[in-house]
Design brief:
With about 140 residues, the chain is mainly β. The chain is built from 1 helix and 8 strands. The protein has one domain: Porin.
Length: about 140
């Protein structure tokens, strides 16, 4: 529960730091990754449309688990984009190389080239389980 409160506090700080919360744009990603296997994500970027870094909120669900992320990105807005996000990841069903029903908190970096999106991250377990640290990597397509 305390991690949910931390995520809400981070989201609130991000919203307060955004000059214009009325304007936003969204994008979707279909991705193959570890540990989520195959997943779909929906992201909302806050602020006026531009190719500069903007605050972003992202939710993702897949075969092996789900992820909630908050950070800054400009992926998919120009030839090359990037982003950095704090993420809460929870595993279910049959995740790759990780036990199910575990929760992790970590950082992820994203790089987009056109509509192709690469991501890598490191996560620390915050719930009961066997895996203390995990790495995440994925390849996706932005819609």
């Amino acid at each position: 529960m305390k991690y949910g409160i931390t995520l809400i506090m981070l989201m609130s700080a991000l919203l307060l730091a955004t000059p214009s919360t009325q304007a936003a744009d969204t994008y979707m990603v279909l991705r193959v990754s570890t540990p989520l296997i195959a997943s779909g994500a929906m992201a909302v970027r806050l602020g006026e449309f531009s190719s500069q870094l903007r605050p972003a909120l992202q939710a993702e669900a897949g075969v092996g688990g789900g992820r909630l992320a908050i950070g800054y990105d400009n992926v998919g807005t120009k030839r090359v984009g990037y982003g950095l996000k704090a993420a809460l990841l929870h595993t279910w069903l049959e995740p790759l190389e990780v036990d199910r029903d575990q929760t992790f908190l970590g950082l992820e970096a994203e790089l987009s080239v056109g509509r192709l999106l690469l991501n890598v991250g490191g996560f620390r377990r915050v719930s009961a389980g066997d895996d203390d640290w995990i790495a995440s990597a994925g390849l996706g397509f932005i819609f």
